[in-house]
Amino acid sequence: MILASGFLETNDPADNGKVIQILRERAVEVSGVKDEKIVFLIERKTASEVRPVLDSMRDIEGVRNVYLAYYSIEEQQDTP
Predict the structure, then answer these.
(1) In whole angstroms, what is the distance from residue 67 CA to residue 18 CA?
(2) Considering the entire predicted model, what is its pTM?
(3) Angle at 49 between CA 46 and CA 54, to 5 degrees
(4) HEC sequence for the chain
């Protein structure tokens, strides 16, 4: 399981409700909100599934910027 977490900034706290709804529709967990900052957690099976979700957050109307604070790395399988 790959995890990515961080926060995004909205243009105005009035945008938070709409942005949170879109995040939840995209199966992104919202774990905190303070002023114009929304803390998120993404869980997916592979890294290739996480990247498009992160990239798409920038395109949500009302989002100013996205900040990634944590990203887990896939375990490499040992090869003989």
Answers:
(1) 19
(2) 0.86
(3) 125
(4) CEEEEEEEEECCHHHHHHHHHHHHHCCCEEEEEECCEEEEEEEECCHHHHHHHHHHHCCCCCEEEEEEEEECCCCCCCCC
Cα distance between residue 33 and residue 45, in whole Å: 26
Query: Using one digit for the tens of pLDDT, what is the confidence trace for 18-29?
Result: 999 999 999 999
Q: Which domains does the chain have, with CATH numbers?
A: 2-71 (3.30.70.920)
Strand pairing category for 29-34 and 37-44: antiparallel
Residue with tokens 């945008």: 15
